[in-house]
Amino acid sequence: MEVQLKPKVLAWARERARLSPAELAAKMKRKEEQVTAWERTGTIKFNWVEKLAQVTHTPYGCLFLSEPMEEKLPVSDFRTLKDKKLERPSPDLIDVMDLAVLRQAWYKDHLVSEGAEPLSFVGSLSGQEDPAVAAAHIRKELGIGTELRSQASTWAEAMKLQTAHLEEHGILVMRSGTVGSNTHRVLDVEEFRGFALSDELAPVIFVNGADYVGAQMFTLMHELVHVFLGQSAISNLENTYAPDKGTEQFCNAVAAEILVPADELRHEWQRAQRLPDPLKPLVGHFKVSGMVMLRRLRDLGMLTPAAFKEQWAILAGRERVQKAKSSGGDYYGAQRNRASTLFSRALIASTLVGETLYRDAYHLLGIKKHDTFVKYARELNFSM
What we know:
alpha+beta
């Protein structure tokens, strides 16, 4: 049986999924000519509509609309690609953000019921401060700095320490390279590197875990600045620095000063510049990516433009392959990153005492089986 849908809606479903007609045809195991025919006439077999929704990650009912659904992100959008604003969010980004918003709403309601007080640091910056002053304010409020990261021997350990420290101060940090645990839906780093959902009770920072770890640390700090501005926003930080001259430039400058304080860098540079590879000890000391360090050295006048360009070209190829890898099958460790340990503990505790339905907890955690829920609870030291 065939149904008559709107051609422009069918084309919209494919385009929002960033698929060409040939790619969609391959995923649906059809001929490309059939796809182009759907989008020309709107006529499609009824049993193919559900498959189309699944393949393009489009809500089934939206395919029956008379006009394509307009989708807007609920945050300020600072993303660019080649200096052009990205107009259409992908289904992966929409689904990741929708889940983060749901988790934030649950956690905020939970905190309200517990009588929690607002976090005083949210919105404590105006964006008019000198970046060094703003960075000092954030370090003082949260007790973060090079000293904390120096306790770690690797970038991954430093990221774990920094994340745990932010969560101790009430910030939910979610980090994933996929939509939930679906390894077939890998998040696109070019589309976004992270976002912040600011709130006085339950601020959220999401970091795209598909990025390499050194860059994730910069994204974490960048989104933290948005929280201190009291601003929800999404960024992609092309080449680790955004091209605009407004809010993003401020967030980048403050993040750079938090991670690599100018005075400390000048001190470390005195020793490092005498070594064959001066970048290596600096990256190891500050626990940031080589690209962030190069940019910092150039901005502070420690590298000439020519030297910066030469070193950047060397690092460009090297750091592209240093993507953050999965935890080697450690599902529960990855789940702590995806859902936030702070959020997970609160939700599981609420569920075990009967305040939250198990089905709601499964949905919010992205878990399908009770056995998985039990094992995850034990992973977080709950007695089951």
